Amino acid sequence: MAEEETEKFYLQKEELVVDTDDEYQYEEVPIDEIFIGTEPDEDLDLAVRTIREAEEDALATSQKDGQTKASVTQRPEVVDDFVRNFLVRMNMDKTLECFQTEWYELQQRGLLHEEDIGVVPDIYSRNQDLDGEVKFLKLEVAKYKEAAMKAKETYVKLRKERDYHRMHHKRVVQEKNKLINDIKRLKRHYAQYEPTLQQLKKKYEVAMKEKMLSKLEKDRAVGQVAGLQSTLKSMESFKGTPPSGFQTASNSAQRKNWDLDEAGRGPTQRTLAMERMKAMSGDVRDLPENYTRHPNDSEFPKDTGINPILAQIKGPTGHLARSGGFRLSNTFQAHSHPISSVVLHPRKQILATTSDDHTWKMWAVPSGDIIMTGEGHTDWVSDCDFHPSGSKLVTSSGDTTVKIWDFSKAECVHTFTDHTHAVWGCTWHSCGDFVASCSMDNTCKLWDLNSLRCRFTMRGHADSVNSIEFLPYSNTLLSCSADKTLSLWDARTGLCAQTFYGHMHSVNNATFSLKGDTVVSCDSYGTVKLWDVRTVAPMVSFDVGPHPANRVAFDPTGAVVAIASNDATVKMYEVSNGRIGTLVGHEDAVQCLMFDKTGEFMVSGGSDNTIRIWS
């Protein structure tokens, strides 16, 4: 207690004297005297001294630049800072407050001396550093542990995938071995058939040889029988006649009268005439005698007929005689969609058109005034044809139907629905009782307008049948197909009579010349061929491609072929010299065309929805 009383603090009053500048005396110096001095006299000593000072300045500058930076020495931490840092790190705020209060109180009292406040011993700082390293290493261990767990999961996943693929591979190998065994077994099985097939082949050859021998023997026997019969007849004719030399003139005349008829024909000629009449009066299809026809079925006309239009064709058409050929004379908008076909009335200046807008229309030509519109199809209308009398119209459509329209009733009078796919074309027989149609179902059908039924279905094409046409005044049908062939059919039997081979691509259209001795066809690559009907062989082949040729038509003389091309032009081919001209006018693909029966003008329709008249 006595020491505490002696070391008490106390205050003592002291007076400090303030220094002032009042006692100093200042002298005014003119400004000019400061900045403008007298120039010293230049001498050698001054110059040498100036050079030496410059060298010393340069040396001092280099030494200053070359000095290394001062190193920082880390001094050990004092005890109180160590304790504070420890308490702060441990979040011991109350203990830290008590410690600081007591520490500063002792320091103010002077109870803490510098020798008492030492630095933290090295072991504690080392422990602190080691503690930090331990924490860092723990974090690293946790990180590596997490990475190891992820690697373990990946390893387990890969092992499962490996096991799965190994099992799958084993299964595939087993299936492969099984298939190999099956193939080997089948090979052995089929190898057993080889000798059997060879044996059957030999038997077949032997049977064919025996058949040929039997046929030869049969023919020989028939010849012998015919000879014997003629011998017997000659022997019978001589029975009961008087011996040679005793035959009177009256008997000879009577025998001649008995052998010959009124026309002067003998027995043989009479028999041949009877057989010929029997064959002509019979049915071409050679049906059985008990076959009953439909009561309303129409009879086919005679196969040979005379085309009256041929007599009207006397010379070359006008466009061949004139220089320059056809020129565009009229254009009118016919439909709202592309036009698929055009056909001219057989007796009047009337044009019928069909379109993808599901309608057909009739127009007056060349004025282009509309006469009639037909609606009833539910899909695009592909083709149409006038009745030979001009009183009816047949149309075909993508809705698989063929419709008959009567102008006097202004309505559809019948619909044929036997086709299973879109119908591409239709044509009327010259007698007016039959209609033929072709379809995407690979068939052609012949319809009877009196019994209102399908008389024949003509099968033979291997792909879609694209067009069909009757040879005028005959029972012959011409069809072309996407199977690259053309066929001639007998409408009375529904059988194929001839097939034309030569096109390399789908045939789009084919038609007869007016004489009926030539056929022209076009395909989807622009190749056009002229065929001789008698030799069933191509006469001329030329190319107007690479665009497809959509339709072809002969002029009435057969001297010019018009081709509707997909490049928006009409090609004119002269048969005599092979010259090809081009008619330009359409704005899109030309789909159809047709000559007037006099050859004075031509009508074409296209995908630009217009009808164009060339004259």
From TrEMBL:
Residues 127-217 form a coiled coil. InterPro entries: WD-F-box_domain-protein, WD40/YVTN_repeat-like_dom_sf, WD40_PAC1, WD40_repeat_CS, WD40_repeat_dom_sf, WD40_rpt. One of its GO terms (cellular component) is axonemal central apparatus. One of its GO terms (biological process) is axoneme assembly. The keyword Repeat applies. Keywords: Coiled coil, Repeat, WD repeat. WD repeats lie at residues 332-373, 374-415, 416-457, 458-499, 500-541, 583-615. It comes from the Eukaryota. The keyword Acetylation does not apply. CDD domains: WD40. PANTHER family: SPERM-ASSOCIATED ANTIGEN 16 PROTEIN (PTHR14604:SF3), WD40 REPEAT PF20 (PTHR14604). This is Sperm-associated antigen 16 protein. It comes from Magallana gigas (Pacific oyster).
